Amino acid sequence: MSDLTRMSSRTSPFLPRVLLADAATSGATGLLMMLGAGAAGELLGIPDALLRYAGFTLLPFALLVAYLATRESMWRPAVWAVVAANALWAADSVLLLLTGWIEPNELGIAFIVGQALVVAAFAELEYLGLRRSQAARGLLFPSNDSSAV
Q1: Full residue range of the structural domain in which residue 130 is found
Q2: Which residues contact 30 (CB under 8 A, 6 or more apart)?
Q3: Which H or E run contains 48?
Q4: Each residue of 29-71: pLDDT tens digit?
Q5: Has residue 31 been placed in a domain?
Q6: Side-chain half-sphere exposure of 46, counting CA atoms within 13 A
């Protein structure tokens, strides 16, 4: 694999910490949404099945992000995939409200917007971690290699 596609020990320590925080938050949220879908659905006005499914999808994501965060050498495209997945989750959360597919109550709207903001913040922090790692390697302006950050 090209030297440009792996981040070495010069990876900013900020990035693994953010990834671990993302993994812990995603895992905890996923478990709570899965196990508490009935009560939460009633409280938030969000369909139980949606909460359960969303929680279920967070668990493998959390495991993957935790695995990535604990690697000595991180594969840049995998970190970019985490950033993209977080950005997509945040955008889809807002889209869920705008389309009217569900009609949550005020607390449900606050929950959806709040978690979208947290996920968007993780995407931004992970992007900043990539930039810091890139700067640490002296690759602030990498070549045209599409796998480089």
Answers
A1: 10-136
A2: 54, 55, 56, 57, 58, 59, 61, 62
A3: helix 48-69
A4: 999 999 999 999 999 999 999 999 999 999 999 999 999 999 9
A5: yes
A6: 26
Distance CA 68, CA 124 (A): 17
Q: Is 83 inside any structural domain? A: yes
Give the per-residue SS3 of 52-114: HHHHHHHHHHHHHHHHHHCCCCEEHHHHHHHHHHHHHHHHHHHHHHHHCCCCCCHHHHHHHHH
Q: For the chain, what is the domain count? A: 1
- What pLDDT, in 10s, does the model give residues 109-122? 999 999 999 999 99
Residue 77: what residue type?
A: P
**What confidence tens digit (pLDDT) does each residue in 1-37 have?**
454 555 544 567 999 999 999 999 999 999 999 999 9
